[in-house]
Amino acid sequence: MITTADEELLRRAIAIAAHAVTLGDAPYGSLLAGPDGTILAEAHNTVRRDDDISAHPELKLARWAARELDPETARRTTMYTSCQPCGMCAGGIVRSGLGRVVYALATEQLVELNPASGAWPTVTQDGPALFDEARVPVEAYYRA
């Protein structure tokens, strides 16, 4: 359930996205709010500027949270973002331990506004293979 406080923080994420456009960056912005609602960190998309396909604000903030927050604080921290996180960012958010995401535009809405946003090709994946060989370094690491 999205509260009035959530809406205010979500408006801030949208403002970050709008500011990104004035800098020549893509229109995506995010922030992290701690358990008490205090803004902990903000970021916007810098994929083109940084020539880095992973420079989405959600992933940058997930990485920040994983480095800077203890697990309990991360679990009680909310990410507010102008658009629904993509698969790459969603994976980073899960791994960071953040407890909640509130977003403005759904992926489907973004694709309606910018059809190129949904034009990613699929990648063929073949496997699993070579289990007995592949398990050796994994078992060595996790048994240590």
From TrEMBL:
At the top level, the lineage of the source is: Bacteria
InterPro entries linked: CMP_dCMP_dom (IPR002125), Cytidine_deaminase-like (IPR016193)
Q: Which Pfam families match?
A: dCMP_cyt_deam_1 (PF00383)
Q: Which PROSITE patterns match?
A: CYT_DCMP_DEAMINASES_2 (PS51747)
Which residues belong to any copy of the CMP/dCMP-type deaminase domain?
4-121
Family matches, as Gene3D superfamilies:
Cytidine Deaminase, domain 2
Q: MF terms per GO, please?
A: catalytic activity
Record-given protein name: Nucleoside deaminase
